[in-house]
Specification:
alpha+beta, SOSS-B, DNA-binding, NA-bd_OB-fold, binds zinc ion, DNA binding, OB fold (Dihydrolipoamide Acetyltransferase, E2P), five-stranded mixed barrel, five-stranded mixed β-barrel
Amino acid sequence: MELDDHAEDLASDLGVDKEEVKSDLQNLVEYSVPVDEAKQSLRRKYGDGSSGGGAPSSKDIAEITPEDGNVTVTGVVLTSGKRSIRYQGSDHVIVEGRLADETGAIDYTAWEDFGLSAGDTITAGNAGVREWDGEPELNLGESTSLSFEDDSLDIPAAYADEIGGDAQLANLQTGDRAVNVEVAVVECERRTIDGRDGETEILSGVFGDESGRLPFTNWDPAPEIEDGGAVRIENAYVQEFRGVPEVNVSEFSTVTALDREIEVGANSTTMDVGEAVRTGGIYDVELVGNAIAVRDGSGLIQRCPECYRVIQKGQCRTHGDVDGIDDLRVKAILDDGTGAVTVVLDDELTEDVYGGTLDDALEQAREAMDQEVVADTIREHIVGKEYRVRGHLSVDEYGANVDAESFEESADDPEARAAAFLEEVSA
Ligand SMILES: [Zn+2]
């Protein structure tokens, strides 16, 4: 049968205009939807209840749960971006983004190029639902019939603002796809890494905008980024790296130099510890709390000369017997009554709280014939005091860690804070 006959067939079955059905059918077939599936999807679209046998029901986005096997959804494409992934040994180009209707929004992955663009209203018939991080996500693939609606769907303003994907760094979260940002390159270095196809050069560093800063990786070095200055990046995605969201700029991203200055927001967000930990990781955060303990592995420590990790009794877990390098570090537990984090201080910040240099620490350890005395001194100096810490928060299965950039005794009235703290703890 020709497309025309199929259309005739459908139009008379459904009692609708043949030309309308034909253009929908053509649309679907152009996107490689098998004609039988396309017809089924149009039967559903034009409301023929008789073909419902086993066909997934239409659902509002807010109603979709990870338990749904397949659903039919009508929504507005908020974002759509290409990305290359390696799946079962070969590279695939997939399209990812978000879809919204009147009730909610959902992430999708399209395994075929359906030609989705931001702003399109689509109906995805027989879309698969899978769970990702506890949330439902749509899989649009071979068995999905996709049609473009002529009438655009009205969606809430908050979603409409997302169309196109323009975003501020502070609002980006792990898992965001097809985002556009306008940023200043704050730090950038070229590195050689062992990629999945051997050695490859990448750029990594830090982007900043009015809202804050985030680390980035540019997998296909863009000269506009390496030159520094301000750039607009389209179709980037956000992935977690070492517990912190990171902007990924891929070969499918567009990078253009901007002819304007971007002021990088100097103020990091100040949050409750509990609230910060629940975000799962923040690049730049400020926390205020009491130092309640100094953990083992603080004070005078030794690192492996090969991998720079901390060693125990001259033994590196990877490199065996090594001649360790002396270093200073603190792992302090900071608690504000809403939660606790381990704050890691580097050698310089450790010197500040210790009140001496690495040489002083070595001297003290020699005299006491025990290097633990250095940690004890630090403990005496900081435990029970309140600190304002700023740095990178990461959260993983081992707990919440803040890689501190600054660690200062809080200027607030310590007695009042202590009283409030005790009240919260006992509450
Ligand atoms: Zn080592």
